[in-house]
Structure formats: C-alpha cells, structure tokens
Amino acid sequence: MKKLTIILLLSTAFLVSHKPIEGYLYANFVSEDGGVTLVAYYPFNGNANDESGNGYHLTNVGATLTDDRNSNPNSAYNFSGSGQYMYIAQQILNLNNDFTIVVWAMGSGVAANDRLIMLHKFSDLSAYTTLIAGGSTSLRGYLRGGDGTFISSYFSPGINNWHMYTIVKTSSSFDIYVDDQYENTTNITGTFNDNDYLSIGGLYYSGGSLQFWPGIIDDIRIYDEALTSDNITDLYNYTP
User: Fold this and answer.
1) What are the chain's domains?
2) Other residues' Cβ atoms within 10 Å of the Cβ of residue 82
3) Residue in 177, 214, 174 with CA at minimum distance from that of residue 102
4) Nearest to 223 by CA among 27, 20, 18, 57
C-alpha cells in the first residue's frame, strides 16, 4: 500500500507540474491574471477549423491537406505559392496589446515578400503584423503602426526545412524566435490601428490577393499575451 501511495503521489505531482503546459498547448488556457491566452489554434487536423473553442474558423482557398512534420497524414496544409491562401474576416488581436503568434512551416522556393501569416486591415495596409520572406533564405517579422512606424526583425533560419517561428510582442519589444532559440528584438514605438483580417499563406485584402507562400504550414497558435522563452521551448518540444 505504501508503494502504491508513493506512485500515486508522484503521478499526481507530475500531472500538476505539467498542467500549465497542457493549458497553453491546447485550448482556453487561463493565465495567472485570469485572461484567456490562446485565442485561436489551427492544428489543421483534416480541416481549417479553430480548435481553441473561440470559433475563428478559416476559409480555405485552394490549399491542400498533406503530411505534417511528424508524417501524420492530412494534418498540415500545402500552399502552391500561386493563388492559395486562407483567411478570416474578424479581428483576433489588438495590436496595441501584448500578443504571441506561433507557426510551424516549411518553404519550397520561397522568394522575397512571400507571406506566411498576417493580421491586417482589409481596406488598406495601414496597420499589420506579419511574417514575410526577406529572400530565399530569410524571414522578417514586421509590425506596422498607425502612424506609419515600421518595426522589423530579420532572421535567416533556412526556410526549406521545418521550423517553428514565433513573434512575441510586449509593450516595449517585438521579439523573434526560430524553433526554441531567441533570434532578434526591436524596441516598440508608436501605436497601432485596428486590424480586421487574418491571412495565412498569402495576403488577401481589398487590393486583391498576392505574395503567396510556397510550402507547408501547420500548428498555428495565436495568444493575446506574451509567452515566455520557457513556454516557447515547451511548444517546440511538444509532439502532437
């Protein structure tokens, strides 16, 4: 009985210690200040639905299901780089507040300005945040303010392999991570207009659709708080 009690206590301790990780890996994680952190989650398990419970389901324009980075079938989306993208016509984040965007992706023949993910205004591009190719082997993280201020961080991850890309925005900084490694930071200045669209795999706005991402995209998570470096490491090491 004593041995069983010890096993049960150890099992309980393990579950308790991992509960916060499970929370922000999955849906409706409530942070210490009571705010719901995970506002949209796209695991692409056979569809483009939001599995956070918040109902931000995507409209898919032409992207096709494929294997994910762990060889699970129909668990990621392939974008040809020509006219294929996803979108939702809703504001998911306030760009003036803290937020985190996490996305797994692998490029294939990526060129400058190909868009991986972007939150923006549909009527114009006066305010947005985006991950965009800076060339065939680099990405840029952009945050554009309503006053015209551009905030950017550059990094060269080797786009043709699977990587987890993370943007973390706080009141004072705009940080970029590749996999679980911190890459770059830029100080925050200016204010940011409202956005009302999320585009994935390209840019879709009133001027048309353009700048399409050629490659595979998977496991997108959008949070309305700034994740820590430990959180990002946990996400990187998690296998769905």
Assistant:
1) 2-237 (2.60.120.200)
2) 9
3) 177
4) 27
